[in-house]
Design brief:
The structure is a single chain. 15% of the residues lie in helices and 25% in strands. It is built from seven helices and 21 strands. The strands form six sheets. Strands 13-21-17-14-16-15 form a six-stranded mixed β-sheet. Strands 1, 4, 18, 19 and 20 form a five-stranded mixed β-sheet that branches. The protein has a four-stranded antiparallel β-sheet with strand order 5-6-9-8, with no helix packed on it. The radius of gyration is 27 Å and the shape is globular.
Length: 454
């Protein structure tokens, strides 16, 4: 008989499991959290939300004669309105009976799968909100891929400054041809991102997408064609169309900075043609592929002052990618000169001028404007939001989907034949949209050179 070895006794040994669960995926809602703190929340119905605006007050100023002369004709004010709506979305979760049974006790697992999933479901919905705030209403999350197979897409084009910034591990997506003619994943269910390489900018999917190989493709929010447009659409003159069953037609998804800050004359903003009311176009400074400078920020502020009033700028919040924070802080350390005398109170020691506010939630100033960073931003632009003007129009707050008949929030699995299945499902539902009451009081600096290494 062979001498007993270690492998003969390991079946009786219990594993020692680290109790702290490592999270190998990103989870932040930096911009969304800021918007919610200063938002105007309007509870609406299918009658939507009308936001009136004044183009001018009118009044005819002119030279006249006081000697038996006519006083002339006056003019009146010019009013209009934006119309805001909502986009309905669901975030679904499924936990199998086996997962529940094998993780319900701390002696079995350091994490209770059902409890953990439920506890963070609304937080994940807030991250969805944050992602949506960076988009343009189409629901498109990437630029066109630079390379792809049926399961791996690469977003590393020479001028692709967005890359994988609006994607996260575990996210469910649709894959569209880059010309938006075909949804390649329409026959599949829950195409999920299982890995993101942030250096190579590759995205690995859990399923093979027929037709993706050899094509340039984009990733989108799933189900964009559920109601409304048949393909990703934004800036439509028909938004919001109340005649569509299941939701509102015209645009595909929630409106974010990319929608509010458009300056294209043929684009519509909440039902108003931009070229017909150019006052609603955001201030724009073109950096012309040069590095960010103080002049760019000051010019943007001056444009806002010229179009509105002298107070514009005091309520602005700048949003930039880490790449441009790097450039702004480098600019600040370059122009500082501190002359030190050996007899000074600090003993002639040199000063450390390097910035210390380098954490993700830290703020920093640019031309007197508080700035935050967002890893979901394109690297070649900085957006400025006049926060008090931003609103949220919603049918209801983000919440658990509840059965109207019995109040249940958790639903047992059912097969196509009606038999009970061994899983539990629950859903987070949301019906809302974002917008600004005055997009012309926002601004953007774009086509900024991206620092080397980014």
């Amino acid at each position: 008989m062979a001498t007993p070895g270690i492998l003969d006794v390991t079946p009786a040994q219990l594993e020692v499991v680290e109790r702290e669960m490592q999270l190998l995926f990103e989870e932040s809602d930096q911009l969304s959290a800021r918007i919610k703190k200063s938002q105007k929340v309007k509870t609406i119905s299918r009658y939507l939300y009308r936001v009136p605006y004044m183009k001018y007050r009118g009044g005819a100023f002119h030279k006249g004669s006081a000697n038996n002369a006519s006083l002339g004709k006056g003019t009146g004010m010019k009013l209009g309105n934006f119309t805001a709506g909502y986009i309905t979305s669901y975030r679904g979760y499924r936990v199998t009976r086996e997962q529940q049974n094998t993780t319900a006790d701390k002696s079995q697992s350091p994490i209770d799968v059902l409890s953990e999933t439920v506890a963070h479901a609304v937080e994940d919905a807030m991250i969805d909100d944050d992602i949506g705030l960076h988009t343009d209403g189409t629901g498109i999350l990437t630029n066109a891929s630079s390379a792809q197979t049926t399961t791996v897409l690469t977003f590393a084009g020479a001028t692709d400054y967005l890359g994988v910034n609006r994607l996260r591990e575990g996210m469910v997506v649709d894959v569209w041809k880059s010309d938006l003619s075909v949804n390649l994943s329409v026959a599949l269910t829950n195409v999920q991102i299982i890995a993101i390489d942030y250096t190579a900018k590759t995205v690995t999917l859990d399923q093979a997408v027929t037709g993706a190989d050899g094509q340039t493709n984009v990733l989108t929010i799933p189900g964009l064609e559920s109601y409304g447009p048949a393909s990703p659409t934004s800036f439509s003159s028909t938004w919001p169309d109340r005649t569509v069953a299941g939701g509102l037609g015209g645009d595909s998804f929630r409106h974010g900075m990319g929608y509010v800050h458009s300056i294209t004359g043929t684009d519509y903003y909440l039902g108003v043609l931009r070229s017909g009311t150019p006052q609603i176009n955001s201030a724009r400074v073109n950096a012309a592929s040069g590095g960010i400078t103080f002049d760019h920020g000051q010019l943007m502020i001056d444009q806002l002052i010229a179009r509105r009033n002298i107070n514009d700028g005091k309520d602005l919040l700048g949003v930039t990618h880490m790449a441009q924070r790097f450039a702004i802080q480098k600019l600040g350390t370059t122009i500082n000169n501190v002359f030190i005398q050996s007899s000074s109170t600090d003993g002639g020691k040199s000063k450390d001028l390097l910035p210390t506010n380098h954490a993700y939630t830290d703020t920093f100033d640019f031309c007197g404007i508080p700035m935050i960073i967002s890893k979901r931003m394109a690297k070649d632009r900085i957006d400025f939001l006049n926060l008090p003007k931003w609103f949220r129009a919603e049918l209801h707050p983000i919440r658990f989907y509840t059965d109207a008949n019995n109040g249940n929030k958790f639903f047992e699995g059912r097969g196509t034949d009606g038999t009970v299945q061994s899983f539990t499902e629950f859903f987070i539902e949301a019906s809302y949209d974002h917008g600004s009451m005055d997009p012309g009081s926002d601004g953007v600096i774009d086509t900024i050179a991206v620092p080397v290494g980014w």
